[in-house]
Write a structure and sequence with these properties.
3 helices; mainly alpha; single chain; about 70 residues
Amino acid sequence: MDAHQPKCPHLPLEVWTRIISKIIDCRYLPRVWLNCRRVSYALKVATETAFIAKHLPHTRIEFDTGI
C-alpha cells in the first residue's frame, strides 16, 4: 500500500453531519466544536451544519449580573 493513500474510505459529508448531530452530552459539545472544526474543511462544514441544525436551537446562555 502506498503511504499516501488513505487507509479507509472517505465518509460523505452527510454521514459526518449525522454522527456529530448524535453527540448530545453537553460536556463534550465544546470539545466537538473546537476540535472537529480544526481537522479538515469538510469536517468543519459538517460540524457547523450539525450545530446549526441540532445543537444551537437548544442552547441557552445565562449571565450572572450580580444583581
